Amino acid sequence: MLAKYDQKRFLIVDDFETFRKSLHEMILGIGAKVVDLAAEGKDALEMCKRTPYDVILMDFNLGKGKNGQQILEELHICKLLKHSTIFIMTTAEVDKEMVLSALEYQPDAYLAKPFSSSELKNRLDKAITKNEQLDDILSALDKKDYVGAIALCDQHIAKKTRDSSWCLKIKADLLYKIGEYSKARKIYQSVADDREAGWAMLGLGRTLTALEQYSEASECLLQLIKKNPLSLEAYDSLANNHQQSGDTESAQETLKKALSICSRSILRQQTFAEICTQNEDLETASIAFRITINLSRNSVRRCADNNLNLARCLSDYAAQSTPEEAKGMIDEALHTLTELTKEFENPELKVRSKLVEACVYHSIQNTKKAQAAITEASALKETLGIDDSAEVLLEFAKTYAHTNNKDKAKEILSILEENYSNDFAVTSAIDKMLDNPISKSGQIEIKGINTRGIGYYEAQEYDAAIDEFSRAITRFPNHVGLQLNLIQAILAILTTDSNTKYLRKCRVIMKKLEKIPEDHQQYKRYLKMRKKYEDILSKPKVEKISSDS
User: Fold this and answer.
1) What Rg do the C-alpha atoms of the chain give, in angstroms?
2) Main-chain dihedrals φ then ψ at residue 479, nearest 5 degrees
3) Does position 101 have pLDDT exceeding 90, yes or no?
4) Where are the alpha helices (DSSP H) in 245-303?
5) To the nearest 10°, the Cα dihedral for 87, 93, 96, 98?
6) Is a pLDDT exceeding 50 seen at residue 542?
């Protein structure tokens, strides 16, 4: 089947005029009639908003502004690409990290400059012919008719066409997407067992994670990484599996390895920063947040929350540091907040920035400036006419909690819980802030977790108890009772086995627990656990876990 280039709409994006003209002549030479040209990423985006192109040839390095990778990412996020659109990345760059970062966003082809007209035509012929044969499936995907697309995949598979394997992959991916995990697993497992295809092993690992079969998922994904050490998707999926299972320490190590291969992914850097924060590794977290902010300068993923999180991270790190070290961190945190309000013209962000500023001053015990910042935030909220959105109220609650005004924080959280009781994202955010959940669903969940975890502990199934409490802490990171239960289950193992992984986890949780006030109902139990932790080898006796929440 000959590709009908005269019926296709082409877009060429390259900042060098000579190459644009050369590529333009190549495209016209193979029969194209409609060919548009752009020199900058912003122009390419505007053109894609107006015209649904069939083929896009994009240079990676476009000079100032957005690069080709960022354009491709934005086209995907803004749904400006049809599933049948062929996107070819072109570049003279040969840097491995750059190539890997470009391939992460899955262009249909990657062509290294210089390339010949015949080489380009060969790539286009194959891609266009395939898309024309699969047009019915691609159209269904454009319409988000996933059930229909699955049925069409079955038809192609039954005909045993040359694209049957692709159809099988798409079918499995769609089953996973719509939550049919068992059906997806069956396909992935069959293909993985038969020929160890990378896509099947990756899909199987993700599906096993969704089915909460974390050990099997980890084994599968590690096998894929061994087979393909550059599979960044495998590292991401393995880190997510660790995180879902409550093993945030292993999640951090896994992402660290992935970033050593390719450090240009904004989402990976951001996730790494967030996990480092959970693990109380604030120095590494602050570095990762800085990188995230720099990477997102020209990206559609530019997000003010990264700036706020960097300021919070520096604030918490300063509180643990010497006065000399803290000064630089505080200065950077305040500068980050100042730049944030300049970069993002959003009234809500002005208020949120002031609230984080209060936390920054509180970390160095400057209560006067902390209170002044809270007062200014409240005044700004009124002056700018900002509604009581969940985001703003949560920021006020975080700030009051951080500055030791617990009653005011609980008052706001109660209002939030009442107004957003049916919004899981909000109730989950509330529960994460508190040492006891405020939502009824959270309270029920905690009760179930403690029943299962304590049951495992009393049956001396300490690893199972640790897994249960670790997963729970990802959902309720400030729940002191769960943290102490986790510590006690770990100590039960450490009395006879100096397990490095558990020692590291114990150290992280103990660092979090240092913030418990002396009047907390669990404070005495914390002191007891801390003593046992400090003298673990001399205290082998295991005591009963408390279910007191």
Assistant:
1) 27
2) -80, 105
3) no
4) 248-261, 266-278, 282-295
5) -60
6) no
Give kind and range of the element (H or E) at residue 309.
helix 304-319
Report long-range pairs for 136-139 (Cβ below 8 Å, ≥24 apart). Answer: 137/167, 137/170, 138/82, 138/83, 138/84, 139/83, 139/84
CA 129 – CA 131 distance, rounded (Å):
6
Alpha carbon separation from 411 to 302, 416, 440 (Å, rounded): 33, 9, 17
* pTM for this prediction: 0.89
Q: For the domain made up of 440-538, give the CATH fold.
A: 1.25.40
Distance CA 410, CA 223 (A): 47
Residue bearing tokens 């993985």: 192
> For the segment 390-432, what is each residue's pLDDT rounded down to a tens digit?
889 999 999 998 898 988 998 998 888 888 888 888 888 888 8
User: Helix/strand/coil (H, E, C) string of 477-519?
Assistant: CCCHHHHHHHHHHHHHHHCCCCCHHHHHHHHHHHHHHCCCCCC
Distance, in Å, from the CA atom of 397 to the CA atom of 409, rounded to the nearest integer, reads: 4
> What six digits make up the tokens of 146?
């996933």
Q: Is 472 exposed, middle or buried (0-12, 13-18, 19+ CB in 10 A)?
A: buried
Please write the tens of the pLDDT for every residue from 18-54. Answer: 999 999 999 999 999 999 999 999 999 999 999 999 9
Domain boundaries, the chain: 5-133, 303-433, 440-538
The CATH fold assigned to 5-133 is Rossmann fold (3.40.50)
Query: Measured between alpha carbons, how far is residue 367 from residues 213, 362, 404, 476 in Å?
Result: 48, 6, 11, 29
pLDDT 10s digits, 179-226: 999 999 999 999 999 888 999 999 999 999 999 999 999 999 999 999
Domains 303-433 and 440-538 share a fold: yes
Q: Please, how many CA atoms are within 13 Å of residue 168, restricted to the half-sphere of its CB?
A: 20
On whether the 303-433 domain is CATH 3.30.460, my answer is no
Going by C-alpha positions, the residue among 219, 193, 239 that lies closest to residue 185 is 193
SS (H, E, C) 246-262: CCHHHHHHHHHHHHHHC
Q: Under a CB-based contact definition with an 8 Å cutoff, are residues 477 and 433 in contact?
A: no
